[in-house]
Specification:
This protein has 292 residues and is mainly beta. It is built from three helices and 18 strands.
């Protein structure tokens, strides 16, 4: 079991970060001085406008990705932003009401290139009603990568780690999980969209090991015993219904660890990169919910 978990970790780190790590942060949301929730932030600043994404409870049961917008004053070194649109969530979603508490950061001191991001925020519903307040405490991805590099060097020097694993860890860097949603067994990921259709690209992002999957749409088989390759398999899903459920079934785990098919989901506005982490016979679900 440990070997399988380690293989999955190696597949994750294979998706390395580029050199453009500016304005990428990882850390926590702090609530009531005691509750900590993981939080990630990635944004660009263009002519004073801030745009990007946030990821709350990453890797957790309520992982949620949102689009953010805001402003930045280079002269005053002040930044403000808010979450404006839910992209996907693993929290339960009701078709009648899916109003989430969204982070609003008031003007806060920030210097581009900083290795920390600290700010107070208010959580608000879409009608402006306040739902909570707290603090953001994060370090830059670049700083975290340096720590990972140190850890990797220790692995290279260790006599307790097999040479084969040392070779796989060599030159690996921290995964940019803002762009990767891990699809776990018995889990439902809800994607909210306004598009008339979504495109699903399915492929193997690492070493080919004969992973095989099937996909059902609202209970009907639309892809049967498909062997994952490096070539991207395209499936278009029209959003003619208010809710569409896709069920991904692992038919085979291949020769390297668990079933790890890459699934990229595009709706013309937001891109979601996901990866299955399933054993043989396990399933995960994706609910596509059409916005009003």
């Amino acid at each position: 079991m440990l070997k399988k978990h380690f293989s999955f970790l190696l597949i994750l780190v294979a998706f390395s970060l580029t050199a453009q790590d500016a304005n990428k942060f990882m850390g926590f949301v702090k609530l009531n001085d005691t509750l900590l929730i993981t939080y990630k932030l990635e944004f660009d600043i263009n002519k004073g406008k801030v745009s990007g994404y946030s990821l709350t409870d990453f890797g957790g049961d309520h992982e949620t990705k949102s689009r953010i917008e805001g402003e930045y004053s280079a002269e005053k070194k002040l930044i403000s932003f808010k979450e404006v649109e839910l992209i996907y969530t693993k929290s339960p979603v009701s078709l009648d009401e899916y109003d989430f508490c969204q982070v609003h950061v008031s003007p806060t001191r920030y210097r581009q290139g900083s290795d920390k991001f600290m700010a107070k925020f208010d959580g608000k519903f879409s009608d402006g009603v306040k739902c909570l307040s707290g603090e953001l405490a994060m370090n830059s991805v670049s700083k975290i990568n340096k720590r990972v590099d140190k850890f990797s060097k220790k692995i290279q020097k260790s006599k307790r780690v097999a040479d084969s694993l040392k070779e796989k860890f060599k030159n690996s860097r921290l995964i940019d999980t803002l762009n990767l949603n891990v699809l776990k067994k018995n889990q439902t990921t809800s994607i909210l969209t306004s598009s008339k259709s979504l495109e699903f690209f399915i492929y193997d992002g690492g070493q080919l090991d004969d992973d095989i999957i099937s996909i059902k749409k609202n209970g009907k088989l639309i892809l049967s015993n498909y062997k994952i390759t490096h070539e991207k398999k395209l499936i278009r899903i029209p959003t003619e219904d208010k809710k569409i459920q896709l069920e991904i079934i692992s038919n085979s785990v291949g020769s390297i660890g668990s079933n790890t098919a890459i699934i990229e989901i595009l709706d013309g506005k937001n891109d979601i990169k996901a990866m299955t982490n399933l054993e043989k016979g396990e399933t995960t679900k994706i609910d596509i919910i059409k916005r009003n």
